[in-house]
Fold this protein.
Amino acid sequence: MRTTDALPPSIHRAVLISTTVLALAGCGAMTAQNPSSALKPVNAVEIAPDARVMLKGADVVAYFTLGKYVQGSPAFKSTHEGVVFHFSNAEHKARFDAAPAQYLPQYGGYCANGIVYGIPWGGDADTWRMIDGKLYIFGGQASKDGFELDLKTNLALADKYWKEEVQGANSFIQRGKRLVFKVPHYKTGEELAKAVAEAKARKP
């Protein structure tokens, strides 16, 4: 008998899904998102020669200094906690080097709305919002709209799941777990889209 045969069906299913997710993810993505540092996990990708580059090379300082998304360049890069950051100019690199924690996106740069459900997934550098001086990234406008339906509650939920589950965890294992064992307040994309449409319809 295999070890998994003795598990309850729900656990057995979670093991199978997690194994499949890990297999599909590939070593490159696994390495990129899970540095052996305090930043684990991060929304990073491999951009040769670097194993993990935050937000596909977006300039994280530009959100704070210019108020917009700007793509960085490997000509101006810094490494912090095993993660490489690209910048659009030398000034932004110097600012980051002087105080990196000040410019880090929340929740490892993953979609903030995903973290509301304990799922470290997605996050597009060009969809973002500053809240109380902190940078939040979203996986597209629909995710941002869903998050903003109840900003206070969703911030509290995202903070809770990040601190209690996601921070320090393997991104792929955590993702697989929460795609099977969904949080009580879980909403599908369709449900969120409907709620956003209804909220917009109520506005004068």
Notes: The CA atoms of residues 8 and 63 lie 47 Å apart. Residues 1-7 have pLDDT under 50 and may be disordered. The first helix runs from residue 9 to 33. Residues 3-202 form one domain.
